[in-house]
Prior knowledge:
Elements: H1 20-26, H2 29-38, H3 51-63
Amino acid sequence: MARTVAALPKGTRVTDYISLGVVTKTVPIAKVRAVLEATGKQSVRHRDLPAHVVVYYVIALALYMQVSYR
């Protein structure tokens, strides 16, 4: 069965102007780490992908939900 090619919608989107720098300025790393600690989900040891980076990744997934993450 043939599939159609996925395409982004035409026009300017809000997410075209949002970068990770804007997200980290809006949601400071200190606040993210405090929430992770308060919920008991902070990183216990240093990993390749620490918990605070995962939080920013999830925020990016929400902002760019119309785009494939692969």
